[in-house]
Design a protein that fits this description.
It is built from 3 helices and 4 strands. It is of the alpha+beta class and 122 residues long. Strands 1-2-4-3 form a 4-stranded mixed sheet. It is globular, with a radius of gyration of 15 Å. The N and C termini lie far apart (35 Å).
Length: 122
């Protein structure tokens, strides 16, 4: 049995380094990755992720929500950024996403209160 898997190191800020056939995806998932980018580059990253999607494709993003706890853990310990829901919503709109929905990650996980989940359509 042959697996149809292709692994490449990628940089969301440098799409030109990806294989040319990496486009027209139905779904792209970014899980707690955007926090590690400088805040002024998040919009560019979202625009690039949008370019990877087919028309009506879905971008699913998990990003750390700003709170007292996450500022201590994520901000100080892991040296990442945290975001308010309004900040993320504005960034997605500026990147040109047609539809943005905020979802709840889980009803049972205690840490779900510290993650923002966004479904965005091209």
């Amino acid at each position: 049995m042959q697996a149809n898997i292709e692994v490449k190191q990628a940089d969301v800020l440098e799409l030109g380094l990806l294989p040319l056939h990496w486009n027209e995806f139905d779904l792209v998932i970014s899980s707690t990755m955007l926090e590690y980018l400088p805040k002024h580059k998040i919009g560019n990253a979202l625009e690039n992720l949008k370019k990877l999607l087919r028309d009506k494709g879905l971008l699913l993003v998990f990003i750390t929500k700003r709170s007292f706890i996450t500022k201590l853990l994520a901000g100080r310990w892991w040296k990442t950024n945290t975001y308010k829901k309004s900040e993320i919503e504005s960034l997605f709109h500026k990147a040109g996403f047609e539809s943005i929905e905020f979802k709840r990650f889980s009803q049972t996980s205690w840490w779900a209160n510290y993650i923002i989940v966004i479904e965005a359509k091209k």
